[in-house]
Amino acid sequence: MLHLLIIFICFSVKLIYAEGVCGDGWDVFHDEYYDICYKYIADGMGDYQTVVTACKGELDSSLPTINSQTEQDFLNQMIVKYKIIENSSLAALKEFAAMVGTYFTTITMTYAINIIQVWLNITIWMVDGIWLDASIKNKHIVWTDRSSGEYENWMSGRPVNNDNCVEMLADEANRDQETERFIRNSRRLIDELKHNQNNQQAQIVQLEKSQVPIDFVYVQMPGQAEPKTLWPAYTWSDVTVTYAGQFFRAEGGGSLAFGKGVQADFAPRLASKQRKDGGDTWEYSLDMKPGVWTEWIYSGTAISGGTGIFNRYLVSSGEVRPLNQAIRIFKRIK
């Protein structure tokens, strides 16, 4: 069912230096020379002079003037933006708006589509007329602000007489066609939503399969869960034996480079000493055992006298090693 409603729109010419300067409830049109603020007011106020006075109270604005097809298109878009008013199912329309805005996190796509179907079946109100800031003289439009009257977009057979006020009307001949186009576009939206739903479901399936990629290696620390507990849908292989008994370090520092094999299994330390006294052949060798002092070894005579100097050596029984405990390593294979 189609209902008609007379509304009016106020506009104010401003130089716009920042977003939101028009204030809440205003729409901004970027003209070639100015930025213009428009405000839609839904409450009908009766005659022409009453709405002119009402606009003066809104930022000292006036009724709209239309000087180009671009501005006409902008007003048409405002009509489309504000004309859909839910009659008896306001709650359903509000629910639709909320659902479409948040369905990614709160509802299924199927439910959102059902809400749209409800929206299409509610009563639609459409704009019947919008007052303009102009008069008619000699069958031509004259704008109150004396702006150019070159642009005119009269309905067939209009204007008829001179008049002190002008109203922008919907094309009665094409009103039903426009309504059908609105419904058709809305149904196309449903098709797009359904298409998007299918794409999103495919993406979700892909994400579920690739949360952990194949060949990912998981290191299980003591007291932590095995990967098959964390990701039961995947198949894991225990590859710990490949790295059995190994410690790992960051690459660099003069040690063996990445991928070049296992570092030698010893640490440099003093392990033996050899001595040779002056003369020809007499030599003396001494092996050093970790944690045990060596025998005394003559190393020379003091400069101040004939007292001999002897040294002995001790090698620690352990090496400096990091604290360590066993880990297990798993690799996803499919």
TrEMBL record:
It comes from the Eukaryota. Residues 1-18 form the signal peptide. SUPFAM superfamilies: C-type lectin-like. Residues 183-210 form a coiled coil. Keywords: Coiled coil, Signal. This is C-type lectin domain-containing protein. Residues 33-168 form the C-type lectin domain. The keyword Coiled coil applies. It comes from Medioppia subpectinata.
